[in-house]
Design brief:
292 residues, alpha/beta, TIM Barrel, 8-stranded parallel barrel, two-stranded antiparallel sheet, 10 strands, 45% helix, 14% strand, globular
Length: 292
């Protein structure tokens, strides 16, 4: 299980004239392998899963696995507020060769805590791959409580959490509630170092799309318990972390990746291109960090 650690990228899905750009996807896979990323998290929020067709969703997972050739882990976004659809994507991800799954809570239908547990149990009982629980109440509206997470963690193949709550009390509490080996991953770049102090072992990062080596450096320093050095590197990245969400994601990340020549900045509606002022800010920070 400890293979899931370090800098794991919430990979953008490249588009070209409205279609998935598989050539760009292959370039990005090679880029991350070369720059210290430990896992490609595909077809998630940053991968614009809400606007991928079911066929595209599966093809992106399949192509990523094919390009990775076993050199890097692939975590497939398979979440849905409909557990039947979540099971469908999970089994398709297994067939595609993904290593594990990422499942979010039920957005829009807003289940209570008992409903959340029932959702994850149904998905767990009808799929085969290891599962990470994705708690991102800023997008799903519902928050998986620490108590509910501990209950979900009792399911055999639930092996970890991606915590995008920003609540740094949670990992401290959950370590006391979950009594099996469990992988704690931050889902928020800005608090990732602090999260690791509380027992986290990695981050699923948006910033890693454009600064993979730097995000990997920060994570590796935390894993070596070199907290002062990790903090110093995190200070340098903080402005870029914040810029990635100054306007709706993943448009800022896609613009940043386009500056590296890896893909076009194209997103799908309702995500719009970023403003000229934000372009200037991102470009300035990437130049300061010597990324471009």
């Amino acid at each position: 299980m400890q293979k899931y650690h370090g800098s794991m990228v919430a990979l953008v899905t490249p588009f070209n004239n409205g279609k998935v750009d598989f050539q760009a996807l292959e370039r990005m896979v090679e880029f991350h392998i070369a720059n210290g990323t430990t896992c490609l998290v595909v077809a998630g929020t940053t991968g614009e899963c809400p606007t991928l067709s079911p066929e595209e969703h599966i093809e992106v997972i399949k192509a990523t696995v094919e390009y990775a050739k076993g050199r890097i882990l692939v975590m497939a976004g398979a979440g849905s507020n409909n557990p039947v659809e979540a099971i469908y994507f999970s089994n398709a991800a297994k067939d595609a060769g993904a290593d594990c799954l990422l499942h979010n809570a039920g957005y829009y239908n807003r289940p209570n805590q008992e409903g959340l547990y029932a959702h994850f149990k149904m998905v767990h009982d009808n799929t085969d791959l290891p599962i990470f629980v994705y708690n991102v109440p800023g997008r799903t509206v519902v928050n998986i409580s620490s108590e509910t997470l501990a209950k979900i963690a009792k399911l055999e193949r639930v092996i970890g959490v991606k915590d995008a709550t920003g609540n740094l009390e949670r990992p401290w509490l959950e370590h006391n509630m979950i009594d099996k080996p469990f992988i704690y991953l931050s889902g928020e770049d800005s608090t990732a170092v602090s999260y690791n102090i509380a027992g986290g072992v990695g981050v699923i990062s948006v910033t890693a799309n454009c600064a993979p080596a730097l995000v990997a450096k920060v994570q590796n320093l935390t894993l070596e318990k070199k907290w002062d050095e990790a903090a110093a590197e995190q200070y340098k990245l903080m402005k870029l972390h914040k810029l990635m969400f100054k306007e709706p994601s993943p448009a800022p990340a896609k613009y940043a990746v386009s500056l590296l020549g890896l893909c076009k900045e194209e997103s799908r509606l309702p995500i719009l291109p970023i403003s000229d002022s934000l372009r200037a800010e991102i470009k300035e920070q990437m130049q300061k960090l010597e990324l471009i």
